[in-house]
Task: inverse folding
């Protein structure tokens, strides 16, 4: 007889609604009978990959049989040189989602709150729920983050604030702002930060 393993899950995990990613472009084009579409919903670049990235992949392909450097030894040292920091001050992950999840796992306890704007990426809410935390959703103001309302929504000194990754908000949510308003600092998805040439 088959057992229902979902009964073994923590209640806050059982209540999670799975994230449903958008359909692949080829399936959407087939479904709607169109061609040449550009997908904007997934932060994809319609111009294709950078020639420098393609050259790096071609160079790396000869060593794909080797176990990857999970500690990102060389990358952290390059970043440390560039930003004048120590290599151990960098935490790298498979996209900003993984970093946000690691931080929530490390600092958030059941019943804690994670402050985020309405319309932020759904994964932020799911990560908070998966940690048995309470997502505190703050409505947008004029289609952007209401930073004052987000600061007011912080009810505990260790609440985590997760602004979404628009360029405006990366500029606007500065650690000094959170310090001034009594929260420990923003957890900012820096995907939007444009690399220097």
Result:
């Amino acid at each position: 007889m088959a057992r229902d393993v979902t009964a073994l899950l923590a209640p806050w995990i059982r209540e999670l609604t799975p994230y449903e990613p958008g359909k692949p472009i080829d399936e959407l084009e087939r479904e709607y009978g169109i061609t040449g579409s550009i997908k904007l919903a997934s932060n994809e670049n319609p111009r294709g990959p950078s020639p420098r990235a393609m050259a790096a992949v071609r160079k790396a392909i000869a060593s794909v049989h080797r176990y990857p450097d999970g500690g990102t030894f060389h990358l952290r040292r390059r970043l440390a040189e560039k930003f004048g920091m120590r290599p151990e001050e960098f935490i790298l992950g498979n996209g900003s989602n993984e970093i946000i999840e690691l931080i929530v796992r490390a600092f958030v306890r059941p019943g804690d709150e994670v402050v985020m704007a309405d319309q932020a990426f759904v994964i932020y809410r799911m990560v908070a729920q998966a940690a048995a935390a309470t997502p505190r959703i703050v409505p947008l103001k004029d289609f952007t983050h209401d930073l004052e309302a987000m600061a007011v929504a912080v009810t505990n000194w260790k609440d985590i604030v997760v602004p979404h990754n628009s360029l405006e908000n990366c500029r606007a949510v500065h650690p000094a702002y959170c310090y001034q308003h009594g929260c420990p600092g923003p957890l900012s998805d820096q995907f939007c930060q444009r690399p220097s040439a």
